[in-house]
Design goal:
The protein is α/β, with parallel strands linked by helices. The chain has eleven helices and 16 strands. The radius of gyration is 20 Å and the shape is globular.
């Protein structure tokens, strides 16, 4: 199989490409190698062909598509800063250009696999004792300012309990999530209308060894680990009790391979199936680092974040895939890897300052 991986020089792309090469497939990578994901040319595995280019440019797509049969579309702009237009240019417009080229009939592409995110669910599913299953609205800023972290029932205003969220209802609470949902709808609509196979994979919180420490805007494990490497405690948003599903990059790469093959058309959650609080992650990392520091919760919050994200992975598991790595192993392997890296500059300081200056991260009163 001849596979094009957009964003393939990145964390998930390289791991997936390595698996494909081991199985005898041909791999082409389209990547613009832009910071903060890259601060130097990547050392791609032997056998991967790199096309340096941008998914927003038609001519770069043309160079990369060539005779490839399947596209794994990982290229993505993910930012909590107010770069709203760039989110849609990269995520939605770049995908629209791909389908324009596919419809011209000059490529060999038969399947498109899109990497998406739990962010399309927003708050996801909750259960209210009075109103049953509900999907809360985005949390109000005035509530967050008062340190009220949990969303209320959208019907009665009462307390709700987070539930696992399946693939059926998407209601983003951030511009990033909205841009990814627009990207998904393009793939779904145009794929079905024009006979192009498609699969959408909605990733949980992907972590693991070799996740670049240069990008401190998102990725709880790398942010916490980078602080620990500078002898500073993990600083958690809100109260640290947000639920997340942290999934290992190797498990994600195996899901990508399944989607490139015979996985039936549709959207699938890709996660471990085990939810943990963010403070659980911080404490697990502290144990791995043998550190006596303790997590701090100064009441910061990030506008647009969902309180909880607990995906239902039963649909993907029914196809034979299952996560193989747990939280302890992810934290331990990442910490060990980070210790081997030279020049661990304090990237997180600049990122925290910029997010506070732009109002992306705020402090409750």
């Amino acid at each position: 199989m001849k596979v094009l991986i957009t964003g393939g020089a990145g964390f998930i792309g390289q791991r997936t490409g390595q698996l494909l090469l081991k199985q005898g497939h041909q791999v082409t990578v389209l990547d613009n190698l832009s910071p903060p994901a890259h601060d130097r040319p990547p050392a791609l595995p032997a056998g991967m062909e790199l096309v340096e280019g941008d998914v927003r440019k038609r001519e770069d797509w043309v160079k990369a598509l060539k005779e490839n049969e399947v596209v794994l579309h990982l290229a993505d702009h993910h930012d909590y800063l107010p770069a709203f237009s760039k989110l849609f240019h990269v995520n939605a417009v770049g995908t629209a250009i791909l389908f324009e080229l596919l419809l011209e009939g000059k490529t060999a592409v038969r399947r498109v696999v899109l990497a998406s995110t739990m962010a399309v669910y927003g708050e996801g599913k909750y259960r209210c004792g009075k109103d049953g299953d509900v999907y809360p609205q985005p949390r109000r800023v005035d509530a967050l300012e008062r340190g009220v972290w949990d969303p209320p029932c959208p019907i009665c205003g009462g307390a709700v309990t987070p539930m696992v969220t399946d693939e059926s209802v998407a209601r983003p609470t951030s511009a990033y999530g909205l841009s990814k949902l627009a990207q998904e709808e393009l793939v779904r609509l145009l794929g079905e209308r024009h006979g192009i196979e498609w699969v959408i994979l909605r990733y949980g919180a992907v972590q693991g060894r070799a996740q670049p420490f240069q990008n401190a805007y998102y990725g709880a494990l790398r942010i916490f680990a980078l602080r620990l490497a500078h002898h500073q405690p993990p600083v958690l948003l809100e109260d640290g009790n947000q639920l997340r599903d942290f999934v290992d990059v190797d498990d994600v790469a195996r899901a990508n391979l399944a989607a490139l093959g015979e996985l039936p058309t549709g959207a699938y959650n890709v996660a471990s199936g085990r939810a943990h609080t963010v403070i659980d992650l911080a404490r697990t990392l502290l144990r791995a680092a043998d550190s006596e520091l303790t997590p701090e919760t100064p009441g910061r919050y990030r506008v647009g974040d969902a309180r909880h994200a607990v995906p239902d992975v039963s649909r993907l598991k029914a196809t034979g895939w299952d996560a193989q790595s747990g939280l302890e192993a992810m934290a331990r392997e990442y910490w060990q890897w980070l210790q081997e890296q030279p020049n661990l500059d304090t990237y997180f300081e600049g990122a925290e300052y910029l997010m506070e200056r732009t109002g992306t991260v705020r402090v409750a009163r």
